[in-house]
Structure formats: C-alpha cells, structure tokens
Specification:
single chain, 210 residues, alpha+beta, 3-stranded antiparallel sheet, 3-stranded mixed sheet, 5 helices, 46% helix
Length: 210
C-alpha cells in the first residue's frame, strides 16, 4: 500500500480504509428538542417568538396616561351633569316656594277685596278712597292675582261653585247666570272658586217622574 511522502513538520494524516469512509460520518437525526421552550415553539409552529414576549410586556406609559385621562374626563362629565341637575332642582324649588308664599299672602287679601267689591256696589267707594282701592287692585295684579267669573260663562266645576241650579230648556249646556262672589287664582294655582248661579238642562229622568 503506497503512503504519501512524509512532510516535515506536519503530523501524519490518519489513514482511511477504502470502502469504510461513510461509516465515520454522522447520520442526520431528529431535531434537537433539548433547547429552550421559545426555540421549540418557533421551530415547531413557525410563529415568531415576539408574540409571546409582547404579551407579557407592560403597556407603555403613554397608553396608561391616556386611559387615566379618559377615566378622569368621564368622572368630570358625570359630576357636571349631577351639578346641573342639582342647580335646576334648586331653582325649581325656589320658584315653588316663592309662588306658595305669594299665594298665601294673596289669599289673606281676598276678604279685603270682597269688602271693597261690596262697598263699590253700594256706591261707598268714592273720592280718595276709590283711588286707594284702585291702587290696591293694581299692585295685587302685579303679583299675579287674577279675578274670574262672569255671567254667561260655561259652568266648569273645577273653577266654579254652583250655589243654585235652575233647570231650563233654553240652554244646551250649564251656564253661569249670576256671579255671587268672584273667584281668584295666581297663574295655574286656584285660590278659591267663583260662587255662581247656574242654569241648564233639566236632570235626566225628571220629566218621566212628572
């Protein structure tokens, strides 16, 4: 068997047996599964390992600040809405208290107005006393006092108090024929109904009994 010439300074290369060189080469085997879990996931599924890393990564400070800002803004909006509702409710309560107070004062003045009306019918309100009475009516009117009740008005049981009722066939509906005492109201608040005499159709069944 021929040997290569000796080269000074270099070691002799190992001899290889003819026909047995492929036996010393390592055969390809299964992939290494002893690596880290991230490497196995990347090799087995083909997904980038950055997804797992970003899932556990904390949110940036800007996102946290924006979330807190939205939450504080919503709190301020709710607080403002509650304050607006409270202010409107207080305003309504104040108006209601003021109307009740005015109505109570005006109710106490109704007997005075009745006396003035009776004296006027008898012709006793003249001269300076007449001017005082007219000024009183004007000032009470500025507070919202309104008188109602006149002959010929349709009878309304909500604002009229029928003292007498006269059946007649000449009227199709109950009508006030005479006002015995004026009624007064303040806005939509009724202070007292008007006392009236009423005439209208006879009650049903009265003709049958007669």
């Amino acid at each position: 068997m021929n040997r290569p010439p000796r080269v000074h300074g270099l070691p002799h290369p190992p001899l290889a047996l003819v026909g047995h060189g492929s036996a010393e080469r390592p055969e390809p085997g299964p992939p290494d599964v002893t690596g880290p879990p991230a490497e196995r996931t990347e090799q087995g599924t083909g997904r980038p390992s950055g997804d797992d890393e970003s899932a556990g990564r904390p949110a940036p400070p800007e996102a946290v600040l924006h979330a807190e800002l939205r939450e504080r803004t919503a709190d301020l909006q709710r607080l403002k809405a509650e304050y607006d509702n409270y202010r409107k409710r207080v305003h309504r309560d104040r108006l209601a208290v003021g109307e009740i107070a005015v109505a109570n004062v005006l109710s106490r003045m109704l007997p005075v107005l009745d006396s003035l009306a009776e004296a006027t019918e008898q012709g006793e309100v003249t001269g300076g006393f007449e001017r005082v009475a007219e000024a009183l009516r004007t000032e009470l009117g500025t507070l919202g006092l309104q008188a109602f009740g006149a002959a010929g008005d349709p009878f309304d049981p909500l604002i009229h108090e029928a003292v007498t009722y006269t059946p007649t066939d000449r009227l199709e509906q109950a009508t006030c024929t005479e006002v015995l005492r004026l009624g007064y109201r303040v806005g939509d608040r009724l202070l007292r109904p008007a006392q009236v005499a009423v005439a209208g159709e006879p009650p049903a069944g009265r003709n049958d009994r007669s």
